[in-house]
Write a structure and sequence with these properties.
Length: 360
C-alpha cells in the first residue's frame, strides 16, 4: 500500500516540503485508514488525529470554509461557533456519515463516561464525498468497527490513493482518493512553520484537469473516450481539504488559511461545480483549549496578520500538491456493476514527465 509510483509527480511552487511531504509533517498529527475492497463494496474511513491525547478534553483551534455547500457533513456548525475540534476528523462516504458520527460519540463516552451528563456533549466531525459510482453506497457497509480500526491504525506514515475513505472516489473521470503534502513556510520575523494538507478527492470533469499549470484535460478526455470510459458529465463529486499547521493562529486566522485551500483546488481545474461539495478545514497544533473550565485558557501570542502570506502560499501549494498525489498514488479500481475508474498513471502512461516540473 505504501509503494510509491515510479514516475515522479511535479513539485508545486518554491517552498520546501517536510520529510514525508504529508500532513503528518506537522508534529503530533496522525492519519489512519480502514479500507473495504470486496466486489461492489469499495469504500472506507480515514481519520486525522490532531494530537495523541484526548481531543475532547484538550481541543485544538480550528475553522472551516464552505467553498460550495453541496454536502452532508456533520459538526461544522459548532466548529464555526466555537472555533475548536473535539474529536478526530473523520472522512467517509455520504451514506455513512451517521454511522461514523455515532462511532465518534461512543468513543468519546467510553473515554469520558460523564460526556453528555456532568460534562458537555461531544461534537462529532465527519466529512463525506459520494463514492456511489464505484461503491454500493446503499449497502451502508461502514460500521463503528471500521472507524475504530482507522483510529487504531493512525500514525505518521500512511498510504495515499485508493485507500480508506478514498477507496471508491473518482476525480476528473479517473481514480481519485486520498492525497497529502506539506510545505515549510519561512516567516518574516525569522520563524518557520509547517503546513500540511490532506484531501479526499472526488471532483472534476476530465476536460478540466490541470497538473502543475499544464492543461492535461483535452488529452485525457480523448484517451478516456477511446477506452469507452465515462463522458465529460456535469460535476457530481466533492472534495474535502484538511489543513494542519503548527503556527500559532486563532480560529479567525485559521478560517483565512482554510479559504486559501480553494486557490490550490482551483489550480487543478476545479470551478467548484454545482453538484460538488467543496469544504476546507484548518486547525493548529500550537496550543490546546481545555474542555474543563477549571483549567485556564492558554495565553497565546498569535502571529500578526501581516505575516500570514507565506502560510497562505503554503496552504495553496500543499493543497494543489495533495490533489495531484491523490491521482498519482491511485490504482485502477473495478466496483459496483463492473464500473471502473482507471488510475492516472495507467491512462496517461508515457504522457507525464518523469522529471519534476516546477511551477513558480
Amino acid at each position: 500500500m505504501l509503494k510509491r509510483p515510479s514516475v515522479t509527480p511535479p513539485h508545486i511552487g518554491r517552498l520546501t516540503t517536510g520529510p514525508r511531504n504529508a500532513i503528518t509533517d506537522v508534529a503530533g498529527v496522525a492519519v489512519g485508514h480502514a479500507t473495504l475492497a470486496d466486489g461492489p463494496i469499495q469504500t472506507g474511513v480515514t481519520v486525522v488525529h490532531p494530537h495523541s491525547g484526548d481531543i475532547y478534553r484538550d481541543r485544538v483551534p480550528a475553522a472551516a470554509t464552505v467553498l460550495n455547500g453541496f454536502g452532508k457533513s456533520i459538526g461544522l456548525m459548532q466548529v464555526a461557533e466555537l472555533g475548536a475540534l473535539e474529536t478526530p476528523i473523520a472522512l467517509t462516504n455520504t451514506f455513512s456519515v451517521a454511522a461514523v458520527a455515532q462511532a465518534q460519540i461512543r468513543q468519546c463516552v467510553a473515554a469520558n463516561p460523564q460526556c453528555g451528563r456532568r460534562l458537555p456533549t461531544v461534537n462529532p466531525l465527519v466529512f463525506e464525498c459520494n463514492d456511489g459510482y464505484l461503491n454500493d453506497i446503499q449497502a451502508m457497509a461502514i460500521t463503528e468497527e471500521h472507524y475504530l480500526t482507522a483510529c487504531a491504525a493512525a500514525g505518521p506514515v500512511f498510504a495515499e490513493g485508493a485507500v480508506g475513505a478514498g477507496r471508491g472516489m473518482s476525480s476528473f473521470g479517473l481514480k481519485g482518493g486520498i492525497g497529502s503534502a506539506s510545505r515549510r513556510a519561512p516567516i518574516a520575523d525569522g520563524s518557520e512553520y509547517t503546513v500540511g494538507a490532506l484531501v479526499l478527492s472526488n471532483f472534476g470533469r476530465p476536460s478540466q484537469l490541470t497538473i502543475a499549470g499544464r492543461a492535461i484535460g483535452p488529452l485525457l478526455e480523448e484517451k478516456l473516450a477511446s477506452t469507452a470510459q465515462a463522458p465529460d458529465e456535469p460535476e457530481k463529486g466533492s472534495i474535502i481539504l484538511i489543513i494542519a499547521t503548527d503556527a500559532p493562529l486563532d480560529a479567525r486566522q485559521l478560517r483565512r488559511l482554510s479559504l486559501r485551500a480553494g486557490a490550490g483546488l482551483a489550480r487543478t481545474g476545479s470551478v467548484f461545480g454545482h453538484g460538488s461539495g467543496d469544504i476546507a478545514l484548518a486547525f493548529s497544533t500550537a496550543y490546546r483549549l481545555p474542555q474543563d473550565p477549571a483549567h485556564p485558557m492558554p495565553s497565546v501570542a498569535v502571529l500578526h496578520d501581516a505575516l500570514l502570506d507565506p502560510l497562505f502560499q503554503a496552504v495553496a501549494d500543499s493543497a494543489e500538491q495533495a490533489i495531484i498525489h491523490s491521482l498519482w498514488h491511485a490504482e485502477t479500481v473495478v466496483g459496483r456493476n463492473g464500473h471502473r475508474r482507471q488510475a492516472l498513471l495507467d491512462v496517461m502512461a508515457g504522457q507525464l514527465s518523469t522529471s519534476p516540473e516546477q511551477r513558480t
